[in-house]
Amino acid sequence: MEWTDQVILRLRALWAEGLSTAEIGRRLGVSKNAVVGKAHRLHLSPRPSPIRPSTGIPGANRVVPASAPPPEPAAAADHAPPEPLALADASAVVGRPVERVAPRPVALVRTGRRSVECCWPLGDPGTANFRFCGAAATPGKPYCQPHAQLAYVKIRDRREDAA
Questions:
Q1: First vs last Cα of the chain: how many Å apart?
Q2: Are 19 and 28 in contact (CB under 8 A)?
Q3: Of 42, 44, 40, nearest to 18 (Cα)?
Q4: From CA 162, how far away is CA 96, in angstroms rounded?
Q5: Which of 34, 57, 82, 114 could make an S-S bridge to 30, C-beta 3.0–4.6 Å?
Q6: d(Cα 22, Cα 30) in Å, to the nearest integer?
Q7: Is the pLDDT confidence value at 56 over 90?
Q8: Long-range pairs for 45-50: beta carbons < 8 A, 24 or more residues apart
Q9: What DSSP line would sit under 74-140, residue for residue?
Q10: Residue 107 — very low, low, confident or very high, per pLDDT cuts 50/70/90?
Q11: In whole angstroms, what is the distance from residue 8 CA to residue 38 CA?
């Protein structure tokens, strides 16, 4: 496809309407990447990112050319790090009481690089009831036989489940 003056005028008009690059490409009979490249070479106004939502700050999605001078440094108070939440504040955020649980030591017997006890986690790690299975591990694997069947699923089985 050749970028004739008429096609470029149509590109500029569609760009000004705010159509997506994919839609412009469909209307012009070219790929989305061809539209993006030509718009860049024509120095058309940049679009806000469809991935990053607008923050409500004017100019937040504005594209700044590399040759532009660096922005003025803001006052230190504008960028102060947030204060950490106290334990009482955390329970308000989570919506339930948050209890501090001291980590319990986990004794695993290791031979070389593999454990001889099953390392399958049971329960919520943040609670006192959290533990590992502890049954005899299958040789060469970190889990007992029932947990190894859960952990190691054949690819063929996954495809059948997805259908």
A1: 42
A2: no
A3: 44
A4: 36
A5: 34
A6: 9
A7: no
A8: 45/15
A9: PPGGGGPPPPPPPHHHHHHHHTS-----PPPP----EETTEESB---EES-TTSTT-EE--SBPPTT
A10: low
A11: 9
Residues 87 and 100: beta-carbon distance below 8 Å:
yes
| Token pair for 72 | 């003025």
CB-based contacts of 135, cutoff 8 Å, min separation 6? 117, 118, 144
Residues near 159 by beta carbon (within 8 Å), at least 6 away in sequence:
none
Q: What is the pLDDT of residue 55?
A: 57
Close Cβ partners of 141 (under 8 Å, ≥ 6 residues apart) = 114, 148, 152
Question: Tokens 């096609």, residue?
Answer: 7
Closest CA relative to residue 44, chosen from 68, 13, 22: 13
Lowest mean pLDDT among 33-37, 85-89, 94-98, 119-123: 85-89
- Which has the minimum average pLDDT: 50-54, 104-108, 123-127, 128-132? 104-108
Compare 47 and 17 and report the one with higher pLDDT. Answer: 17
Tokens of 125: 């790690």
Beta bridge partners of residue 117, listed in sequence order: 136
Q: How many whole angstroms from its chain centre is CA 40? A: 28
